Amino acid sequence: MMKKLMGLLKQEEGQGMTEYGLVLGLIAVAVVAALILLRDHIIALFNNAETTVNNGVTRMGTTPSPAP
Question: What is the pTM of this model?
Fold first, then answer.
């Protein structure tokens, strides 16, 4: 009886899933922190892309010629 009780206390079947959950939670917190820290840069990047698309500027910085 005592061996069975000690076996239940040492059982580690669910431990792996708990560790994966903790790592996943830590990664989620790191991603949110990175997004908060880089918020202004990300907004500027998207605003720059929007301006570029709206102005019709190509990658080389010239306006494309009209189609014949």
Answer: 0.53
Is the sign of the CA dihedral 10, 16, 21, 25 positive or negative?
positive
Answer yes or no: are the C-beta atoms of 46 and 39 closer than 8 Å.
no
Closest CA to 30 of 38, 41, 20, 19: 38
Domain boundaries, the chain: 1-62
Is there a contact between 56 and 63 (Cβ–Cβ < 8 Å)? yes
Q: Is 57 within 8 Å of 63 (Cβ atoms)?
A: yes
pLDDT at 64 over 70: no
- Sign of the alpha-carbon dihedral angle for 11, 16, 22, 25: negative
| pLDDT band per the 50, 70, 90 thresholds, residue 17 | confident
